[in-house]
Amino acid sequence: MLAAAVRLFNAHGYDATSMFDIAESLGITKSTLYHHVSSKEQLLGMAVDRALDGLFAAANDISGNNATQRLETLIRASVLVLAERLEFVTLLLRVHGNSEVEQHALTRRREFDRIVTDLVKQAQKEGGVRDDVDPATAARLIFGMVNSLIEWYRPDRGNPETIADTVTALSFHGLKTA
Amino acid sequence: MLAAAVRLFNAHGYDATSMFDIAESLGITKSTLYHHVSSKEQLLGMAVDRALDGLFAAANDISGNNATQRLETLIRASVLVLAERLEFVTLLLRVHGNSEVEQHALTRRREFDRIVTDLVKQAQKEGGVRDDVDPATAARLIFGMVNSLIEWYRPDRGNPETIADTVTALSFHGLKTA
DNA sequence: TTATTTACCGTCCGAGCGGTCGGTAAATCA
DNA sequence: TGATTTACCGACCGCTCGGACGGTAAATAA
Predict the structure, then answer these.
(1) Nearest residue to A149 (alpha-carbon basis) of A100, A97, A98, A84
(2) pLDDT (tens digit per residue) in B130-162
């Protein structure tokens, strides 16, 4: 049910998707849908939490001897979470704070950003990451790259590990020939 | 007038922004607004065209002795267009094909993607770009990075040239210490 | 001066929205 | 068995939306 809602939200936009549309796609009526969920916003909240929980689980589970390695681990893990929970993360990344639920999601996203920025900062101190770039900017750009997955990655084309390899390679070494 | 509409579209979403909201922000009535534009969708169309025209102007104007240099030029130019037409490009990148106008924007975006992918492919042949990555994937990832600007870049913080430097540096050399 | 165009407004409309409510029938519990 | 909960439905409500329409007053053109 949540999955059906998220699919429609992503396909036509949250606002453009009516509760009737969701009910119809499930073969039930709107009334029945409201018997199982209390509001449209609740569906959104459950979905973005599913995405955020995955991201934070990855962030709390990173391994590596130093910050540079840990950053690479987090980038790779994030790609895998994006791929695995693609539709939920897609919805999350399109949220823009128009309601309490969305504000809460934004707050958690900013918290995640801070973790990444701190990691970049530490990696710079270690000398593992070039120090001629602003850590916050670098963090945003790298995760901009990671997050772009939602725009084009489709689970039936190419496996997540290969993508994760490409993303980490580009993140650390860029396009230039090795 | 277009600027006011785009600002509201970006702030609250296209669907969530009513023609009344736009009119109110301009100190006129909805009727007057409809005297100047024929529909809400027309406003959207004008805005995304403004963004796409900037991007294609950049793509048609790139210089460089080889594909690798031309790719770098295009990346840099795109960052500057994003910064300059931030609000229009923001709207463009949030469009998802729910109407004729949006479909048309998507088609033009795909055309731009193809230009970039071709450039990466050529650069690989030249040996200027690592050949262990799929060109289409690399193109999408790099421009995912570029496009992430709309999520966090604000014209009053840091100048576009500095950002463009960082983006090209990360694109070609990655995070690793030089 | 008169005719026409331009900018502007208040009012209205049909449609669609999120959500409520009263009720029914099947499943579960005692 | 009877009582209660659960899943489901049709009808309805207040509200907002994009857009249409008829009209007015100022600017412009003849």
Answers:
(1) A84
(2) 999 999 999 999 999 999 999 999 999 889 999
For residues A83-95, give the mean pLDDT. Answer: 98
CB within 8 Å: A176 and B178: no
B37 touches strand D (CB under 7 A): no
Closest C1' nucleotide to B37's CA: D19
Distance A11 CA to C4 C1' (A): 49
Please list, in sequence order, all residues whose beta carbon lies within 8 angstroms of the beta carbon of residue A90, skipping any fewer than 6 positions away: A10, A150
Strand D: which positions are within 7 A of a protein CB? Answer: 7-11, 16-22
CB contact under 8 A, B171 and A175: yes
pLDDT tier for residue A178 given thresholds of 50, 70 and 90: confident
> Residue B178 has what pLDDT?
76
This prediction's pTM = 0.95
Q: Which residue carries 């772009």 as its tokens?
A: A148
A130 close to A142: Cβ distance less than 8 angstroms: no
Residue indicated by tokens 């084309």: A157
DSSP H stretches of helix in B18-159:
19-26, 30-36, 40-59, 67-84, 86-94, 100-126, 135-147, 149-152
Q: In angstroms, what separates the C-alpha of A33 from chain B's closest C-alpha?
A: 23
pLDDT in tens, A98-148: 999 999 999 999 999 999 999 999 999 999 999 999 999 999 999 999 999
- Chain-centroid distance of CA B113 in Å reads 11
User: Residue B55 in contact with residue B90, Cβ under 8 Å?
Assistant: no
- Virtual torsion, Cα A111, A54, A21, A17, nearest 10 deg: 20
- Percent of chain A residues topping a pLDDT of 70: 100
Contacts of A96 in chain B (CB under 8 A): 11-13
CB B153: neighbour CB atoms within 10 A?
18
Residues of A in contact with B145 (CB under 8 A): 141-142, 144-145, 148
Q: Are B39 and B5 in contact (CB under 8 A)?
A: no
Give Cβ neighbours of residue A97 (< 8 Å, ≥ 6 apart): A103, A105, A106
Distances (CA, A) of B84 to A132, B66, B120, B159: 24, 27, 25, 11
